[in-house]
Amino acid sequence: MSDDAAIAVKGRPDDRASLTSLLLLVPPPLFWAGNFIVGRAMRQDVPPLTLSFWRWVIAFVCLLPFALRPMRRDLPRYWQYRWRIVSVSLAGVVSFNSLVYLGLRSTPASNGLLLNSFIPILIVLFAALFYQQRLQRTQALGLALSFAGVLTIILHGDGSRLAALAFARGDLIVFCAMIAWALYTLWLRGIPADINRIGLMGAQIAIALVILTPLYLWERASGLQAHWNLQSVSALAYLGLFPSVVAYLLYNIGVARVGAARAGYSIHLIPLFGVLLAVLFLDESLHLYHLAGIAAIIAGLALASRSRH
Questions:
Q1: Whose CB has fewer CB within 10 Å in the chain, the N or C terminal residue?
Q2: Degrees (nearest 5) of the Cα angle 124, 259, 27?
Q3: Rama region for 121: left / alpha / beta (φ>0; ψ in -120 to 50; rest)
Q4: Alpha helices (H) along the chain
Q5: Domain boundaries along the sequence of the chain
Q6: What are the average pLDDT values for consecutive 10-residue runs of the chain, which has 309 residues?
């Protein structure tokens, strides 16, 4: 066998491993797109903090049999990285989902789904601001173009809203959730890959439930009550298993294997899956400003990704 052939053969397992790692990042956007659809569909039946709390209770119960042993083993490592783990729990588990459910009470699911496309750009921006990663000219142009796309969606294509500061409240809340997810993705890379991801997910949920419990009780005390029926219980079962356990585990593993930046690009599949689901199950319709906004966001991302890291 020639040297070139030997090199090619040696490279194949790595190529397959890289492809497998990237494929791990395909199901999470699909499940998270379903999260938006269910959150919007349940807005009249289940209040946002109640939905978030019980979602993670179900997830914790499902995950605990598999997570308990690695959680016990990695407990010293959790303590070593305690503030980082608390930060990712607060950003990615508590804040992101609660803000999404709150925002979806007053904005269509399609708007929330399209705003997800700004997450990779937020990751690049925050990496430059907080981690001293150099922001190149093409990345800056991509940021500006994508931000224009986000504004197009938030303003519903009406520039006069900007002059009057007439933003849709729900869109702004969902955009805050996108900021939380970008921080979650960046902060995840500070947790070593040798820490078991199933156990880490269990630890994140446990911390999140400690934070969510008083918020859930406050919401109940304020008079917001859930209306439990077969539809709402089934929705919670979906949220507790697929977007909460399966998607988070695959995303955590994907970030550990391919890095935060490459994993962040998979977020662009959420609008693709989600808008189709919204049209099918929520009878929502696409508008021209949706298409213009998503085109600007994708163009900005493509421009930013041309820069070498």
A1: N
A2: 100
A3: alpha
A4: 3-23, 27-41, 48-73, 75-80, 82-88, 96-103, 109-115, 119-130, 137-154, 160-163, 169-188, 197-221, 230-241, 247-258, 260-265, 269-281, 288-305
A5: 37-305
A6: 44 58 80 88 91 94 92 94 94 92 85 74 80 71 73 68 63 90 88 89 94 95 90 91 86 77 70 76 75 76 59
